[in-house]
């Protein structure tokens, strides 16, 4: 009988733990539906760029978003604000901070100044989302789409061998330099060598 009672208690505890986790009450459950927002702009004269990020609340309770983005190597966060871009599956937010309801997706624009073109990373760079909780501030993160660089455009949500992470592609536009110099001996991703 004790074994049955102990097993039942363990089962109830296990199910309760899973449900608590899935609800987003313990750890916020935010994602970024792909492709991302786009709406990118850049200004070479000021070495600044903006990019849109979609943030979705996959939990069962509302989340108070108090910050999006942060300073990174070679990048200084200027602002995160409502992008004003409307998608069929998202609702533009009020300025950060804002409340994100369960199941809701919001488009937010983040602005960066490039402080050192060479220092901007080429690897994956998740975008931190700071969430106000009763016990303090929690930081979750979302991923942003990759790009294919072109002459005057960036192709969003590109997945080819020559795909470039969002921060590097936008920094290249601001810095006025292509990621690859086309100098003899340079190898582009997907070329297989010179």
Structure description:
The protein is of the alpha+beta class. The chain is built from two helices and eleven strands; from the N terminus they run αβββββββββββα. The protein has helices spanning 2-23, 166-175; strands at 30-31, 38-43, 48-57, 63-68, 75-82, 98-100, 105-114, 127-133, 136-142, 147-149, 154-156. Strands 1, 2, 3, 5 and 7 form a five-stranded antiparallel sheet that branches. Strand 10 (147-149) and strand 11 form a beta hairpin. Residues 82-94 and 178-194 have low confidence and may be disordered.
The low-confidence runs, each spanning 5 or more residues with pLDDT under 50, are: 82-94, 178-194
* Gyration radius over CA: 21 Å
Share of helix, binned:
10-25%
Shape: elongated
Beta fraction of the residues? 25-35%
- Let me know the largest β-sheet: 5 strands, antiparallel
């Amino acid at each position: 009988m004790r074994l049955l009672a102990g097993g039942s208690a363990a089962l109830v505890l296990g199910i309760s733990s899973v449900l608590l986790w899935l609800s987003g009450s313990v750890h916020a459950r935010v994602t970024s539906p792909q492709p991302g927002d786009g709406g990118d702009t850049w200004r070479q004269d000021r070495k600044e760029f903006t990019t849109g990020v979609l943030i979705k609340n996959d939990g069962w309770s509302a989340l108070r978003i108090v910050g999006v983005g942060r300073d990174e190597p070679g990048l200084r966060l200027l602002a995160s604000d409502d992008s004003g871009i409307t998608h069929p599956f998202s609702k533009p937010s009020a300025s950060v901070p804002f409340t994100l309801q369960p199941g809701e997706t919001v488009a937010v624009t983040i602005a960066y100044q490039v402080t050192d073109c060479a220092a901007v990373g080429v690897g994956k760079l998740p975008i931190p989302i700071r969430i106000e909780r009763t016990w303090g501030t929690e930081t979750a993160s979302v991923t942003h789409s990759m790009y294919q660089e072109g002459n005057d455009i960036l192709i969003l949500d590109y997945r080819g061998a020559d795909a470039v992470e969002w921060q590097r592609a936008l920094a290249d536009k601001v810095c006025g330099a292509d990621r690859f110099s086309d100098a003899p001996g340079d190898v582009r991703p997907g070329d297989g060598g010179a």
